[in-house]
Amino acid sequence: MDGWQDDMESIIKGTLAHLSEEKLTCLLEHLSNIGIRASDDFRFLAEDDLKQIISLIDSRKLLHAFNNGGGGTQLSQPSDNAASDTITLTLTPVTELEVSSVMTSPQCSVPLQNQTWTSTFKIPWEKTRPTLQRCLSQNTIPEDTDRRHMVRITVDAMREKCLNPTWSQCTVIAKSVVDKSPDSFEDRTDEGDRMGNGYFTLSSQLKNRVDNLNRNNTLARLRKPKRPADTDVHPAQPEKVAKTDSYGCINWQPSQLPEGETIDSLHHKKEELKLIFSQEGPSGADRVRVNDLMVLTYASQRSAINGTPSLSVHELKREWPFLFVKKFLMQHFTSLTGIELDERLRECIAGKGRRVLQFFKTQLLRWTKEVKTVLADIERLQGENMDSTIAVILLMMTFFREKDDAIFLLADVTSTHADAEAQLSLPTTPRIIMLGDSILTSKKWMLCVEGKVVIQSVNPQDDFTSALAVFFASFYIFNLEYQAEAASTLEFIQRFLVRINPENTKCRAKFQQSHNSGRMVQRKSRALNPHVANFIKEFTNYDWQNY
Asked: Are 315 and 363 within one domain?
């Protein structure tokens, strides 16, 4: 890690000592992603650059520390103007004997000069198994048992330097391993695409091993103040649909207007589109003129979506009605991400859908009762022209222990959009309303966002894959975060089917409902969804052995 990065991490820790390691890592990655490359870059930071990761007050504290710390050359302490070379941790009371032990043990929560051990740390490759060393020399993926053995001996060596390495320190070590042998250790999809930063899974394995070894070691553990037993974690108010950054996009906001166009000329074209829609409705989408106008006004559409204050989806539909026709929603997504979404989903489901179902069927004893029930329903309905896309998505939701109403709502087959809005409790985050007796057998659908139906199927060709494409595209086009209650399934769709693999997650909710207790609990901040990463790794290994 460069010196200025050490300074940046030191300032953040000294100013915002309450940040968790996961939040700290997320913040450091975010600062790097937005272009911080040297100490002088700190002065260009603004509150808006930080608000997606930390609170407004924390943002102001951090900006003050950066600006008063000489661009990150010294560690600012809120309570003292003098520079300090230590990080102070709050520990629970211990006895004199325990204090003596703490002072003589290699804790990584003491002077800053000891924080740099990761830059000189060497992986003990000579202690790894010959089978793993052979994989490294051949650039192949090692067996899980060899990988776990490497993790164990690596953590043992790390703990000689520091009894309780932090998440960020485990991340540094994991990155060095992946940089040395990407073909053997990098997180990849079955197509070979890198997932996230490529070393999230190995970071997690290292940190989990550290935590397991320290489970009964009260001296090595870094403690947080306990929450009173009768205090529940609840969000202050219901979470609103939030706007996010250009996550995974290549054309989030064009910097130039189309050649020969001005702001006024694009405004006139927008008004022409509204006039055509008022006269012809969605059927006007078939006109060549409408297609040309929608292509030319892409930059104006993005400006309306990304503007501050942002328009609601209902307001956007009033200003850009053709954007809410499937044809142009898909066209917009292609301009935004470079991906033909409908085509890619069909290709992936045709190639992977059957193999995913086979993955579950051939290992039936491993799964929960709920997964077995869904598999039985799929088997029973296969002769009824069931859509395999619905089967895969429902099965994955059950596997991730997410309720189907986090994505699907069921309505009578005769329901209109007015009926759905009147009879169903429509949430703010996107949902697919399936029309029929069951989700698995439904043929018609609607999409609702912010409590309103915004798109509905009108052609027989608009099958469930079309619905999934429209549903998924809405998160990207309208800058919506994934809802916490369906975060794993949505990231599965994104990374496994659509194959968009940025380094962070599109779900930043701070709270979610516990699968076990049903209560609202605080979410762990992770750059990559571990459930999705583990499934893709398992499926890739299974697929490689069986196909």
From this structure: no
Quick one: 133 and 271 in the same domain? no
Contacts of 365 (CB under 8 A, 6+ apart): none
From 337, 367, 388, give the residue that closes a domain.
Answer: 337
Cis peptide preceding 238, ω within 30 of 0: no
**Cα distance between residue 505 and residue 475, in whole Å:** 13
Question: DSSP string spanning 137-189?
Answer: HHT-PPPHHHHHHHHHHHHHHHHHH-SS--HHHHHHHHHHHHHH-HHHHS-B-
Number of structural domains the chain divides into: 4
Total residue length of the chain: 547
Q: Give the span between the Cα atoms of 496 and 498, in whole angstroms.
A: 6
Residue 306 placed within a domain: yes
Distance separating alpha carbons of residues 291 and 297, to the nearest angstrom: 10
Among the candidates 196, 213, 230, a domain finishes at 213
- Same structural domain, 269 and 381: no
pLDDT in tens, the chain (547 residues): 455 566 677 788 778 878 777 677 778 777 877 777 776 777 778 877 787 678 888 888 888 887 775 443 333 333 344 333 333 333 334 343 333 333 444 545 433 334 579 889 999 999 999 999 999 999 999 998 999 999 999 999 999 999 889 888 999 999 999 999 999 999 988 778 888 888 888 998 999 899 888 887 655 555 544 555 444 444 444 444 444 557 888 999 998 999 999 999 999 999 999 999 999 999 999 999 999 999 999 999 999 999 888 889 999 999 999 999 999 999 999 999 999 999 999 999 988 998 999 999 999 999 999 999 999 999 988 766 778 899 999 999 999 999 999 999 999 999 999 999 999 999 999 999 999 999 998 989 999 999 999 999 878 778 999 999 999 999 999 999 999 999 999 999 999 999 998 887 887 766 666 666 666 666 666 778 889 999 998 898 887 777 6
Q: Is residue 222 part of a domain?
A: no
Domain shared by 269 and 180, yes or no: no
Q: How far apart are CA 433 and CA 444, in angstroms?
A: 9
Residue type, 394: L
- On whether both 401 and 473 belong to a single domain, the answer is yes
Work out the number of other CB atoms within 10 angstroms of the CB of residue 383: 7
Is the same domain home to 418 and 535?
Answer: yes
CB 105 within 8 A of CB 163: yes
DSSP H or E run through 95: none
Asked whether residue 247 is domain-assigned, the answer is: no
Tell me, yes or no, whether 139 and 193 share the same domain.
Answer: yes
- What range defines the domain where residue 298 resides? 263-337
Q: How far is CA 269 from CA 11, 363, 400, 444, in A?
A: 50, 57, 46, 33
| Helix (H), strand (E) at residue 6 | helix 3-15
- In a domain, residue 243? The reply is no
According to DSSP H, which parts of 192-253 are helical?
A: 200-213
> Could you tell me which residues come within 8 angstroms of residue 56 by beta carbon, excluding any fewer than 6 positions away?
47
